[in-house]
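ok so for the tutorial part 2 we go from a plain amino acid sequence to predicted structure tokens. step 1 is just haveing the sequence, like this:
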Amino acid sequence: MKFNKLVTSSRRKNRKRYFNAPSHIRRKFMSSPLSKELRTKHNVRSMPIRKDDEVQIVRGHYKSGTIAKVVSVYRKKYVIHIDRVTRDKASGQPVFIGIHPSKVVVHKLKLDNDRKKILERKAKNRTDKGKYTEETS
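step 2 — the prediction. this is what the tokens look like for a chain of 137 residues:
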């Protein structure tokens, strides 16, 4: 069911907007879910990924239990590069392998003032929302 008549549900148009999106909108697309501890601490489910966040890969060939640092966020290709996730070229030079941000879980956020404000704003919007219970009605 369509909720907003001003937003298209056409696959063709959605793909066009996704692949031709400007950088400030790609940032939003490149969000990662937070770990259970961070989710309960900040009352926020996901955040746009950033360099120096510490993440764990939870899907795909490079899935591992180890937590590593984000080396770079490559918005043009919709991938992030993670420390120690590399492979060697024919010349022997190591290159980073791109991982999509939705396939990782953030375990430690690099917090600065702007990011703290974003967390507060998102948490404030979530406080009035929640699971339906008999007491709320």
